[in-house]
């Protein structure tokens, strides 16, 4: 923290132009490339402004013909869709809003809609939010997009499973779930898509992906300490066994399935997400009685189980079991759920 590698300085104090910091950012980039098997024709950027800034940055850079397709499966997908509509025609390809985003629309329907739209008037890209943090759903497969590039917000499932990077034109994630501290957004983009510069000439220089790529994420002072922390996390993921079946992905489903099994055998709790759409990162559930839900959340805190109150758009509870959560943590929650149910076995259940 205070003396990085004998430099006598914290990463927080050193110049982002120094050879020492250059080593840190280059190592972080190489590690994420190795972890995710990112092909050479994709650029990796470490930007600021959160995933939210990219809701605007993506259309500003890449809505070249002024028409892009959005699949709205939750709050963040909806925000991206609304932001895109400021810059061109945002085509709503599918939505699960009618059932409060408890599922991912069927892939065959999404793919058919993409094909139909693209045949009429080409789409610049298809946009999805791969894991829906608030609602606890995720895409278990990707839509067929033909020649249209697929863009994905993977903020809340980043580094929790392997991704076939070549199936995407652009992938991005805020770091704060699985990759480090808030304040870094990792953008992985195919270089031909940004070669011509932003679609909107008036796009702020900071959001110009071509320039950011040319400047290797150092158009201005990057979040040096945040990038250093990301590098540490990439290294930890690698040491723990990487992303594939034996490591992050397997651990993810071990954690999530312990909670889903508890929910499926419960008479008190009900899962918000439909079975085929369940997220491995965010498990959303409720009793159906707001007072009982509040009692559950308050009791959890007494057991040192924090942050299980559901987002206000869903209510109930949410367990975010990101990579840093251990099986021991999840066991404690599952055990508390069972104890709570035993104590409230006559409690109401309205759905
Ligand atoms: N997308 C997803 C899937 C998210 O979970 C979040 C934040 N929770 C965002 C976008 C917004 O991210 P940020 O706060 O980094 O702008």
Textual characterization of the structure:
It is globular and about 60 Å long. A 7-stranded mixed beta sheet has the order 1-9-8-7-4-2-3, with helices on both faces. α2 runs parallel beside α3 and α8 packs parallel to α10. The model has no long low-confidence stretch (mean pLDDT 95). The termini are far apart. The chain has 351 residues and is of the alpha/beta class. The chain has 10 helices and 12 strands. Bound molecules: 4'-deoxy-4'-aminopyridoxal-5'-phosphate.
Which strand order do you get reading across the main beta sheet?
A: 1-9-8-7-4-2-3
Described by the principal axes of the CA atoms, the overall outline is globular
Bound molecules: 4'-deoxy-4'-aminopyridoxal-5'-phosphate
How many helical stretches? 10
What kind of sheet is the major sheet? Answer: 7 strands, mixed
* Unreliable residue stretches: none
In N-to-C order, the SSE pattern is: HEHEHEHEEEEEEHHHHEEHEH
Residue share in helix = 25-40%
Which range does the strand content fall in?
Answer: 15-25%
Structural class: alpha/beta
Quaternary organisation: single chain
The whole-number mean of residue pLDDT values reads 95
Radius of gyration: 21 Å
Total beta strands: 12
Q: How far apart, in Å, are the first and last alpha carbons?
A: 50 Å
